[in-house]
Design goal:
There is one protein chain. 36% of the residues lie in helices and 22% in strands. The chain contains eight helices and eight strands; from the N terminus they run αβαβαββααβαβαββα. Strands 2-1-3-4-6-5-7-8 form an eight-stranded mixed beta sheet. Helix 6 links the parallel strand 5 and strand 6. Helix 4 packs parallel to helix 6. The protein is globular.
């Protein structure tokens, strides 16, 4: 079967992944029901995991692995989470294939989850760690949106730094019903705890200003 990533892309990604510190694991959930991009997403994750010994790829089924799906709060397919070197889920989830521009947020999440420092100022980290209420951040994206990866990366980094926060990328066209539910007319659209909304690639401070009012 022809690979999704050509040799040039493989070499570029392999070089980028050389920056990884510790190992990470992809837990991928497919579905047997009407999942147009499941096979492509599986191929992308599998091909990237083959570029370094520091990535483990695990495939699950939404229908047959219900306990695992519940553990990671997976209700959509294709979806996957990235676990840290201890196998811990730190609230980093992707719903839909992270292709196009979104491969940038995906690869950044891999590097970040491997333990590479984000470079945040100490006062920002302190503000993030003070969030003491449950937070869910949904970032709606399209694969052609150049501004979306930054919004996704900020949300995922918040989750990595605080166990009260979980964040998820949602590919708006794949999950059209959800896009309609949340009235997504432009991307990136950020929805926090189902009611607070931000538009565009907002700086980290914009997320924090909202989280601190919850």
């Amino acid at each position: 079967m022809k690979k999704l990533l050509n040799e040039e892309l493989q070499n570029q990604i392999r070089e980028f992944l050389n920056n990884m510190k510790d190992e990470v694991t992809f837990i991928f959930f497919a579905s047997e029901k009407n999942c147009e991009t499941c096979e492509q997403t599986k191929m992308l994750l599998s091909e990237i995991s083959e570029l370094t010994e520091k990535i483990t790829f695990v495939e699950k089924s939404l229908e047959n692995d219900k306990a695992d799906a519940k553990k990671y709060d997976i209700t959509l397919a294709p979806s996957f989470v990235i676990l840290d070197h201890e196998g811990k889920y730190k609230g980093v989830k992707f719903n839909g294939i992270p292709a196009g521009h979104e491969i940038n947020s995906f690869l950044s999440a891999v590097i970040d989850m491997s333990g590479v420092e984000f470079g945040f100022e100490p006062e920002i980290i302190e503000r993030i760690k003070k969030i003491d209420k449950p937070v869910n951040i949904k970032v709606f994206v399209t694969l052609s949106c150049p501004h979306c990866p930054g919004a996704v990366s900020n949300a995922h980094r918040l989750a990595m730094l605080n166990d009260n926060i979980n964040s998820e990328m949602i590919e708006a066209q794949t999950f059209y019903d959800l896009s309609q539910k949340y009235k997504v007319s432009g991307v990136p659209k950020i929805v926090i705890n189902e009611k607070h909304e931000l538009m565009g690639n907002q700086p980290l401070e914009a997320y924090l200003n909202t989280l601190e009012t919850l």
